[in-house]
């Protein structure tokens, strides 16, 4: 069974305040007498479910097109956590052994992808280091960022950079049970881009 963990991309989707919202322009339409429908989109590359590239948070980081695809495919563990809004997940908040090289945290702290809230939960640098030491290659979260909204240092992104982990943000894990899955979340091959939208899917 496939479980879609991506939000719908539309002009209603919330993006980081100040970033470029999603806009789709219809250039010709069968309904208007054209022989085809044809449209374009304009949006931040950090829209919806997306994979961050190292050059998003590290001056010497590579763009998303240079990232190995095997980071975004394979054995994955979903771990629900319960912490207060606007806080970071620490090692002590994780009540499960790490059993897969890709870990997705379900926080339920950004419940509606179309309604922005700044008090979402993020990761701690301590937790990122803990995961890396246990062989984790990708970390994901059901919020817009692995760092807090007002964090200008980006401590968790910097921990990711030190350990060369992949990052998946903006996924939707509502109703997804804890456990082991196969993750499929390939980024587009966007040359030099600091992120890419993905169609993130779990297989049980």
Q: Can you walk through the features of this model?
A:
The structure is a single chain. This protein has 204 residues and is mainly beta. The protein has a single domain (2-6, 45-203), classed as Putative cyclase (Glucose Oxidase, domain 1, 3-Layer(bba) Sandwich), CATH 3.50.30. It has helices at 125-133, 155-163, and strands at residues 2-4, 23-28, 38-42, 50-52, 73-80, 88-89, 102-106, 122-123, 138-141, 166-169, 179-184, 195-197, 201-203. The strands form three sheets. Strands 1-13-11-5-7-9-10-4-12 form a nine-stranded mixed sheet, with no helix packed on it. Helix 2 (155-163) links the parallel strand 9 and strand 10 (166-169). The longest helix has 9 residues, at 125-133. The N and C termini lie close together (6 Å).
């Amino acid at each position: 069974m496939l479980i879609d963990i991506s939000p719908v991309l539309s002009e209603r989707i919330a993006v980081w305040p100040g970033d470029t919202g999603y806009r789709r322009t219809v250039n010709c339409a069968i309904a208007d007498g054209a022989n085809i429908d044809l449209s374009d989109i304009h949006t931040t590359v950090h829209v919806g479910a997306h994979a961050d590239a190292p050059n998003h948070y590290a001056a010497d980081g590579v763009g998303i097109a240079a990232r190995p695809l095997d980071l975004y495919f394979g054995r994955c563990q979903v771990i629900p956590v319960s912490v207060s809004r606007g806080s970071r997940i620490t090692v002590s908040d994780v009540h499960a052994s790490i059993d897969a090289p890709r870990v997705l945290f379900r926080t339920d702290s950004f419940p509606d992808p179309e309604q922005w809230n700044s008090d979402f939960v993020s990761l701690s640098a301590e937790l990122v280091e803990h995961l890396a030491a246990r062989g984790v290659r990708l970390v994901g979260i059901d919020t817009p960022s692995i760092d807090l909204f007002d964090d200008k240092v980006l401590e968790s992104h910097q921990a990711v950079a030190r350990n060369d982990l992949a990052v998946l943000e903006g996924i939707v894990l509502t109703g997804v049970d804890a456990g082991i899955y196969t993750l499929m979340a390939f980024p587009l091959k966007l040359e030099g881009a600091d992120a890419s939208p993905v169609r993130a899917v779990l297989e049980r």
